[in-house]
Amino acid sequence: MPYLKHRMRQITAAAVAVMALGAASACDSAADANDTVSTGGTLRVVLPQLPEHLDPQRIAAAMDNNISRLMSRTLTTYKAESGPASSELVPDLATDLGRPSEKNTVWEFKLREGVKWEDGSPVNCSQVKYGVERNFAALFDSGLPYAELMLADNATPYEGPYSGKGLDSVVCEDTRTIKFKLKQPAGDFNYTVALPIFSPAKQGADGDKDAYDKRPLSNGPYRMEPRSGDKGFTLVRNEHWSSSLDSVRKGHPDKIVFVVDSNDPAVTNALIQDQGADRNTIMLQSNVAPNFLQQVINDPKLSQRVATGPSGSVRYFAINTVMVPNLDCRKALAYAFNKRKYRQAMGGSVIGELATSMIPPNLAAHAKFDHYGTLTDSDGDEDKALALIDKARKDGKPCPEKISVSLPENDTIARYVKTMVDAYVRIGIKVELKRLPADQYWGRIADVGHGNHLVYAGWIPDWANGSAVIPPLFDGKLVKPTGEQSGSNYSFLNDSDVNKAIADALAEQDLNRQYKLWGEIDSKLSEMAVTIPVLYPNSIRMYGSNVAGAFIHAQFGAPDLASLGLKDPSIPVDVTSSAS
């Protein structure tokens, strides 16, 4: 998307470097990696925090999904290939991409024969049905909402399989044939079943729900070793996985060690030094630290060890519409936000384009609008913000003079978010930053009772349409009472006009018309100031010299774990490194 200003923006040397770096990492390096990647050895993956969930039905975060794909297969999935191919849907547990009927209200899939769990038992239709049914249990409200939003409910509202009942809209015709009945037509339902919430679950294996969330039963190439502590976990080969029955996951390493380290500068520096265990290490979810960014992208050798590309996501702040119900106050927060300083703290223009919408520009449903002047003055507009605050006060609905902002417990993120403190002080609003445990963050901010005015958030569409952005983030049906989780509707918006517009767009069968409707809703939501989109970020992830197969996967906005391996498997890995 063009970045517009009153005067032409100069393309810096750093920007040129990162564009060249992106082309190499997305294409050439991936091709080279396929020539050099070997089977065996131990890959080391650094995470900023532990995954919040690994039980497939509870997963909502992209990082968790990326890790889960190594253990939990779905009916369909995405190619483990670089570039545009990573957005291409392929069969996974199913033999094809599904067979729709009855005007796209019924979808049928045939399961592959021979796929097994880590205990050697076969994966069958009843387990896929059971997995889908688990989405309706109150325990699993942390997961994505698509099963509840799209599948036809029972005459008596369904409460999940633990009630002893089944969901009538999911039918096993035989042990290998499953049929889904939808509330309304969905021509892209085969993209929906690529999500982990549609993974199978084996009845009885999930008896201890919390333990299963940390160590789910695997039907993929890796199984989890018993976990202890909160510093990481290890995946080893699932002996019952067959590469002949899985065309996507490469299964290159013998072992994958996941290590938690949120000190991005230390991790980046260790990878630059490239010694010991760091030779076999990759940063999965964190970018190159800002203080090393210019060094890395401008060094010919270091830049060859970076996977980079558009993340396909939007970084934003959700405004709590329950705590900030006054539209003028929400607009004031949007006008005053200094997006230029925020991006500068992240590393400058090479880190991504400034955002104006919630639907990212790589989707056909993206609409061009700029209701708060981001593209003409990215420093924000204090005068308009102050005028709106004054108007709210005269109307007898004064804006809060002090607000709290939620963010994960992460020093790097905290440095970015602190830029908004200065911006809001200039309009008379004091900001208190509330750092929450990173491995509990998304669940905590999904509870309407969390008590904060804004929350740090981000979203990668679950498939390439506005239907994977607007409904999960803004459908009022998702908003639950205090103590329960409202899915990913972090603004807790429940607006009747928006709800109707969402329903109308979902029912639209003309795809081009549907794209237009999603863009119109996105524009309306911007005018309602329920979020502050900040950035369409690039992913810039560094790895050691012995790592191969690294590229940014469009579905995860991060290196694809299913493709990674080592050039020389004989190089040993101690689970410690110079960064730890």
TrEMBL record:
Keywords: Signal. Pfam families: SBP_bac_5. The keyword Transmembrane does not apply. The keyword Disulfide bond does not apply. InterPro entries: Peptide/Ni-bd, SBP_5, SBP_5_dom. Residues 88-475 form the Solute-binding protein family domain. Residues 205-216 have a biased composition (Basic and acidic residues). Residues 1-30 form the signal peptide. Residues 204-229 are annotated as: Disordered. PROSITE patterns: PROKAR_LIPOPROTEIN (PS51257). This is ABC transporter substrate-binding protein.
